[in-house]
Amino acid sequence: MFGPPLKPALHDATVPHRVKLAVDPTMIRNLPVPEVLRAVADVGFEHVELSPRLDLLPPSRGRRASREGVARIASSARETGVGIASLFVVYPWASPDEQQRATAVRYLAQACEVAVELGCERLNTELTGDPKRPLESEAAFWRSIEDVVPLLDRHGLTLAVEPHPYDFIEDGNQAVDLVRGVRSDRVRYLYCAPHTFTMGGDMSAMIEYSSDVLAHVHVADTFRPQRTIVNPPGDWRIHQHLDVGQGEVDWTEFFAALRRVGFDDVMTVTVFAWEDRAIDSFRANLAAVKRHLAVAASA
User: Fold this and answer.
1) 160 vs 209: CA distance, rounded Å
2) pTM, 2 dp
3) For 88-130, how does the pLDDT look when each residue is reduced to its tens digit (9 = 90+)?
4) E-strand spans in 63-208?
5) Is the CB of residue 43 less than 8 Å from the CB of residue 286?
């Protein structure tokens, strides 16, 4: 469907040294993972962030992939030259419900095994929990951390955490402080650009504040939540994951801030809004990110 087998991709000289550009292929999740990797390679991405899939690591459920299935994914990654930079997993590991929390940690352990089998050193996740029960959720988070950090140490993995809208912590700087409090190099921070306006709004200040623990960034555009009219009104968390340039994120500021703090880790395009033109969206965002990186590097 996407052409003959590809040779391993060469490093793109237009991307600053050590920055890994990845894409989250959620918009083509209907394809088997080997076809996803081929499509990503055809677009020109050298890395992928595999987000929750019903046939691999579904959200809030146990592992679905067999050893043989994971081996086929690893083989496809080698054939296409697309590295698996990270796995994004979603388990309620900060749930105030103890049974749910403990089960989430078991699922996270399963995900760690899959990461090792894929040769992937990075897991990404959300804080989860309940914003209406923040103290109970934080206590649950710390109970999970007692199990998760030794798990990461044992497998040689890093876990990057983001404050997602409707998590028990939504403020970016407060989430950074929480990550610092873990006191482990295995637990780092993920800055998600489309969550900027729910995390605090001052993008440069938040990026600079997180610089000592910042390991991963997500790239997609969004409008300020106030742009959306909801009827009837309620306790909503409004944001989008649009193509770069379609919303109100200041991308010049974003990339300049990353440059100032010396960010050189993984940057994932996480656009979800355009499943009807997914491949065109991937191409457009890859070009936009490269352009912004080049401008920031030359400033």
Assistant:
1) 16
2) 0.92
3) 999 999 999 999 999 999 999 999 999 999 999 999 999 999 9
4) 83-88, 122-126, 158-162, 187-192
5) yes
* ∠ Cα 21 23 25 (to 5°): 165
- Determine phi and psi for 150, rounding to 5 degrees: -60, -35
DSSP 59: T
Two structure tokens written together for 113: 């095994």
- C-alpha–C-alpha distance, residues 139 and 267, integer Å: 31
Which residues does 179 contact at the CB level (< 8 Å), separation at least 6? 161, 187, 188, 189, 213
Written as one letter, the residue type at 83 is G
Both tokens of residue 91?
A: 């388990």
* Residues 6+ away with beta carbon under 8 Å from 101: 92, 93, 94, 95, 140, 143, 144
225 neighbors 239 (Cβ within 8 angstroms): yes
Q: How far apart are CA 77 and CA 118, in angstroms?
A: 9
Contact predicate 266/86, CB 8 Å:
yes
Q: Residue 166 corresponds to which tokens in the numbers above?
A: 């409707």
Which of 1, 128, 149, 147 lies closest to 52 in space, CA to CA?
Answer: 128
Rg over alpha carbons for the chain, rounded to the nearest Å, is: 18
Q: Any idea which residue has 């009827």 for tokens?
A: 231
Residue with tokens 């770069």: 244
The single residue listed with the structure tokens 């103890």 is: 98
Q: Could you read off the pLDDT of 269-282 as tens digits, one per residue? A: 999 999 999 999 99
**Of the candidates 208, 41, 217, 4, the residue with the CA atom closest to the CA atom of residue 124:** 217
Residue 140 C-beta-side C-alpha neighbours within 13 Å? 28
Which residues on adjacent β-strands are paired with residue 83?
47
